[in-house]
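User: We ran a pulldown and think these components assemble together. Before we commit to crystallization trials, I'd like a predicted model of the whole complex to look at. Sequences follow.
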Amino acid sequence: MANESSRQASNVSSGLPELNLSQFLWVQTRRHLGLLIASPGEIVNPLLFFLLVVILFPLGLGPDPEQLSLLAPGILWVVALLANLMICMRLFVDDFEDGSLEQLAMAPLPLAVAVVPQLLASWLASGVILSLVSPLFGLMLGFPLAAAPTLVASLLMGTLIMLLVGAIGAALTVGIQRGGILLALLILPLYVPILIAGTRALEEATSQGDPMVALALLGAGVTGGLVLAPVAIAAGLRVSLEL
Amino acid sequence: MSETLLSVSDVSINKGLRQLLRGVDFTVKSGEIWQLRGGNGVGKTSLLRAMAGLARVEVFGAINRCEDMLYSGHATALKGALSARDNLLSHPSGMGMPTSAEVDEALGRVKLQGYEEAKAGRLSAGQKRRVALARLFLPSGRLWLLDEPFTALDVLGVKILEERFIEHADAGGAVVFTSHQPADLGDRLNLLNLEQFSGE
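Assistant: Here's a predicted model for the assembly, 443 residues in total across the polymer chains.
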């Protein structure tokens, strides 16, 4: 405090107050949510994609409800994974091109912390909405309503891990023209364990088993991802920004 | 009493295999205004970015500068979907965290009263530039590094900016900017012609 007041006393223009971290993160989260709401395609397109695939599968496989409900866990998770991939491809592109990312990199806080608001906003606008409406999509595939809580819980955690992992790839490839395919090649292998754990949870839930083991694995993934991914994302962004 | 805010000593910048600049040497003290000059491609932007710590190219030599710095480049970080006010309130540089009232006052200083709620995407190029430059009227760093700040500005806009430079320098700050136009800053202006450091 003494330091701050002396700085202010020495001259007007250097009287920059200390950065209020929580306020900064809140303002940035609002900025990104505002941007997502302003271009609703970013929110609606993944949902439409989800809906289309769920409509197409019964047409391709035949309307046998038993067969459909047998395949439902895999279908739901694969579609969620692909929808997430679509989101990751757009994640940092605009901010990279309009200079927001380099300004963020110059902000007086670690880049690993500064990227969290965008990840949070993206997850709220994609993963959370998708998870909450997923029981509806599940019904269309004959997925039992009784297992809906497991479906929602597994997708809530799964979409968050996939976003965190995907953001690492997005950070690395943002400077590359048409880096989408490279991004998919980079992160799809990392999605495999998440996919296996997620579908396993749903299979257990639909066959009166215990989905808790698979859900706990996803939970562990979320915890690990929240701690490690921002650091990797920041490192990737530094490579892309050539800092 | 003037303090050194930026010192560049024997800095060379490479771009690929080509040496862009060689042996750049100068210091910026508080109260000074510097204009970097030179033809297209001589390395004005590269040097400015290097000084901001955003080197996209290979930089050799020592650059020391004070922590509180404001950098504004060609890419202005403005979001077309957000209003002029929201753009400044949520600017990702995180500088000073201005209040709504401060932002509206800054927009007034760059003669954008009545445009606070306007989406930045609907403004003209000059107005967008003014929104970006309204940051200079908010709590900001002591050292300003501005890349082509006069681009797209009209005569009045240029005058507002020049007056702000002098105001900032008088308050103990310093300004380094690139421009092709001769700035009307009288004897306050220090010129650095980068042609003399050209690596070719």
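Residues 4-68+142-197 of chain B form a domain with the Rossmann fold fold (CATH 3.40.50.300). That may be worth checking against your pulldown data before setting up trials.

User: Thanks, that helps.
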